[in-house]
Amino acid sequence: MDLNTLATELRRDDRYQRKGQVARTIVHTPDLRVVLIALAREHTITEHHAGATVTVHCLSGRLRLRLPDRHVDLSAGNLLAMGANLSHDVSAVEDSVFVLTLGAS
């Protein structure tokens, strides 16, 4: 699977052009989900939480995650792991693409 090609497709997607955000699930099994997400500069995925352990792996751009006790900045190549049920939001400081991996909940 070529994530760079998929990222380019996401950025060309009409939903990304209109809303500044688009996602594509690239792996979905009973115990694992992997989602590729493109988030345009200054757009935010509002506060939420996942019922499972997650990782956020920034492929391009720069992200800022707001956690209950701190902010975490991720640039290309950085990965953050978060425990289940941890509230957070995700903002794009720059046009960004990241991989969200969710374990079984």
Q: Overview of this structure, please?
A:
InterPro entries: RmlC-like_jellyroll, RmlC_Cupin_sf. This is Cupin domain-containing protein. The protein has 105 residues and is an alpha+beta fold. The chain has one domain: Jelly Rolls (Sandwich), CATH 2.60.120. Helices cover 15% and strands 53% of the residues. A hairpin with a 2-residue loop joins strand 1 and strand 2. The longest helix is centred in the N-terminal third of the chain and has 10 residues. The model has no long low-confidence stretch (mean pLDDT 95).
| Strand neighbour order, sheet with most strands | 1-2-9-4-7
CATH class: Mainly Beta
| Share of helix, binned | 10-25%
Taking pLDDT < 50 over at least 5 consecutive residues as the criterion, the unreliable ranges are: none
The rough form would be described as: globular
Determine the N-to-C terminus distance: 25 Å
Q: Number of DSSP strands?
A: 9
- Amount of beta strand: over 45%
Q: What name is given to the CATH topology?
A: Jelly Rolls
Q: Can you tell me the number of structural domains? A: 1
Instruction: Provide the CATH architecture.
Output: Sandwich
Classification by helices and strands: alpha+beta
Major β-sheet profile = 5 strands, antiparallel
The CATH homologous superfamily name equals Jelly Rolls
Output the number of helix runs: 2
The H-and-E topology, N to C, reads as: HHEEEEEEEEE
Mean pLDDT: 95
